[in-house]
């Protein structure tokens, strides 16, 4: 299967040579193979690359060429600046042509985790380093990065999540769907949701941290890579943590250790715990429809239970008087 000519992503010898520290004339571009891509990408391909050694040998590599969103291109440029963020993909090349933005990254041989699997600690350590770098600097990031603001929350609660729930209802009606729609309607007007946007620190986020976006390498090191940055956005830091790591988990502890390592001091406990409660509530509400449609009512019921309990906890944090945080 070949991509339509107007969608084919450029794979340029000069960029590959720079990545491989090779002579561009020694780079050969081979066959392209379709890959399953992110939700918003019309084209993702695995491309064979050969580098000819001066001794006559041939080194073979593979890269991923992808039609990307503007947000993904920005995010990949930004994460390349984060020291010691080993779980993030490299950016080999990027650009924009008549068909829109595109990126080229290494292909990481391995397998993605199940959607509800525990995300490795190394991913959260890299996320802590990313969040720390952009905390307090979110306003300096390009406007093409979506913001988790009042408009974003309203769309998530009143459009994105309900559209998935209605899809699940059409396929197999269940009482949990009505419960979810009722909660989303109420939360669109819940002051606690909106207060969270103003009292919790924002930074650059991956935006969709869960098992299907983590590739575990086939090698002995089993190194994880957090892929598909098409949902990158600016928002409260715990949105990248809460959906896949409870505060009692080793992953959350790894996040806090990495934060302290790079910052030289711990993340403020109120920010960590109140932020986690708010993000648990909002992210479970935002994705409950997708989970109901893809994985069934039992998982959706669990998400709603978790969301409601988390928003109550966040309300308790607010009542405790620690709602004044840095921007």
Automatic annotation (TrEMBL):
InterPro entries to which the protein is assigned, alphabetical: Aminoglycoside_PTrfase (IPR002575), Kinase-like_dom_sf (IPR011009)
Boundaries of every Aminoglycoside phosphotransferase domain copy: 52-259
Pfam families reported for this sequence: APH (PF01636)
Protein name per its UniProtKB record: Phosphotransferase
Organism: Micromonospora aurantiaca
Highest classification ranks of the organism: Bacteria, Bacillati, Actinomycetota, Actinomycetes, Micromonosporales
């Amino acid at each position: 299967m070949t991509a339509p000519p107007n969608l084919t992503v450029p794979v340029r010898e000069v960029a590959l040579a720079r990545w491989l520290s090779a002579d561009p004339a020694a780079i050969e571009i081979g066959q392209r193979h379709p890959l399953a891509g992110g939700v918003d990408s019309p084209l993702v391909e695995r491309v064979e690359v050969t580098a000819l050694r001066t001794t006559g040998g041939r080194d073979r590599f593979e890269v991923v060429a992808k039609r990307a969103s503007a947000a993904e291109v920005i995010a990949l440029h930004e994460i390349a600046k984060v020291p010691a963020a080993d779980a993030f993909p490299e950016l080999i090349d990027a650009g924009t042509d008549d068909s829109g933005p595109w990126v080229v990254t290494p292909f990481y041989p391995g397998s993605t985790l199940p959607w509800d699997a525990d995300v490795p600690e190394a991913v959260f350590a890299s996320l802590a380093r990313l969040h720390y770098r952009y905390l307090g600097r979110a306003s300096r990031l390009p406007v093409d990065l979506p913001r988790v603001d009042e408009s974003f929350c309203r769309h998530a609660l009143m459009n994105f999540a309900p559209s998935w729930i209605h899809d699940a209802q059409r396929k197999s009606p269940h009482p949990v769907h009505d419960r979810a729609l009722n909660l989303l309607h109420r939360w669109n007007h819940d002051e606690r949701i909106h207060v969270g946007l103003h009292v919790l620190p924002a930074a650059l986020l991956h935006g969709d941290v869960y098992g299907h976006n983590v590739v575990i390498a086939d090698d002995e090191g089993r190194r994880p890579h957090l892929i598909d940055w098409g949902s990158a956005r600016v928002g409260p830091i715990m949105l990248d943590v809460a959906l896949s790591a409870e505060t009692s988990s080793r992953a959350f502890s790894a996040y806090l250790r990495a934060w302290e390592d790079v910052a030289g001091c711990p993340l403020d406990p109120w920010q960590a715990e109140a932020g986690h409660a708010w993000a648990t509530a909002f992210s479970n509400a935002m994705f409950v429809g997708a989970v109901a449609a893809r994985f069934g009512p039992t998982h959706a019921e669990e998400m709603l239970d978790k969301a409601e309990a988390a928003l109550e906890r966040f309300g308790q944090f607010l009542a405790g008087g620690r709602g004044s945080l840095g921007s």
